[in-house]
Amino acid sequence: MAPLSHDQDITSWLQLLSAIEDAEAGRGTARLTEISLSVYGALAAAQFQVTQLRARVHVLATSGPGSPSSQGET
């Protein structure tokens, strides 16, 4: 999942704030729920990617300087 461009990121925040304001004004929570679920999904995907990166870093850190994985060989 690629990060949002700066313009898309601003638009996303504006949409979230607008949905919060609508819900606070009693105009329904459907849009806020939709955005919240989308954000939750994105956070879950990011957490998974961080976990994968941590595992890769751990392997690199424990492989030692003479091992094939530290020299870019497969």
- Rg calculated over all Cα atoms: 20 Å
- The sequence of SSEs as H and E is HH
What is the number of helical segments per DSSP (H or I, 4+ residues)?
Answer: 2
Which structural class matches the secondary elements?
Answer: mainly alpha
Structure description:
The model has no long low-confidence stretch (mean pLDDT 81). The protein has 74 residues and is mostly helical. The longest helix is centred in the middle third of the chain and has 33 residues, at 30-62. It has helices at residues 6-24, 30-62. It has a domain at 14-61.
Architecture blueprint of SSEs:
Layout (H helix, E strand, L loop, with lengths): L5 H19 L5 H33 L12
Descriptive tags:
74 residues; mainly alpha; 2 helices; single chain
Summarize the structure.
The chain has two helices and no strands. It is mainly α.
